[in-house]
Amino acid sequence: MAEITKPAGPAESAGPAEPAYLAAVRESYDTVAAAYAELVPPPAALDPLSRVMLDAFAEETAGEGPVADVGCGPGRVTAYLAERGVQALGFDLSGRMAELAGRAYPHLPFAVASMTALPVRDGALAGLLAYYSTHHTPPALLPDVFAEFRRALAPGGLLMLAGHIGTGERRRPTEAYGGLPVSYESHRLPAARIAALLEAAGLAVTARLEEERYVTFRAKRRTVAG
């Protein structure tokens, strides 16, 4: 199992230099965590194409080493991967989400962590899943997130990123998941821009699936000789 290099306490307090958007995401998902777990369908209820992509990711990473589900929420996708032989662990910015995941799947490791600073050593991961978890990141900061993904992945490690696409619009909902208050923003970028940012971070895009408003990428960390 990948060594988690910092403790996973409940609801880590925001540091003074933390970007405001991270605090908004954490507070919002702490608020909606229980409702989210009830309202969001499990992986088995996803559309066939989404399940195919998850299954393909699991098939390629099973037995290869630890795989992080980044933005794991209540842990259902993490558990789905584990059931398919993946050495899965989950990270979420929300302490409440990580707590729910740990209760539901006590046999799996979950930690409170930001995708901007994953608590694993360089090259520790055989795979990384970001399943509808990067769209709250301001576009200007996505290069930092993708660089962190590359750092955590072993050379040749596989990334699967799924999320919403659009024309660059920014959404600011005030409530979600049954009318609960939220303060995060959601950014919907063109698929081509996301692909370019992944490539710029040193992640070679090997497959891309677009379904109207949704997009899924599979990318591998490039191995650089030198």
Task: Write a concise keyword list for the protein shown above.
32% helix; alpha/beta; two-stranded antiparallel ribbon; 6 helices
Description:
The protein has 226 residues and is of the alpha/beta class. Helices cover 32% and strands 27% of the residues. Helix 1 packs parallel to helix 4 (95-104). The two termini are 28 Å apart.
Task: Put the structure in a nutshell.
With 226 residues, the protein is of the alpha/beta class. Helix content is 32%, strand content 27%. It contains six helices and eleven strands.
Taking all residues together, what is the mean pLDDT? 90
* Overall shape: globular
The helix/strand class is: alpha/beta
Q: What's the number of extended β-strand segments? A: 11
- Radius of gyration (CA) equals 16 Å
Characterize the biggest β-sheet: 7 strands, mixed
Fraction of helical residues: 25-40%
- Unreliably modeled segments: 6-15
- Give the strand content: 25-35%
Number of helices: 6
Going across the major beta sheet, what is the strand order? 3-2-1-4-5-11-10
Measured between the Cα atoms of the first and last residue, the distance is: 28 Å
The helix-strand sequence is HHEHEHEEHEEEEEHEE
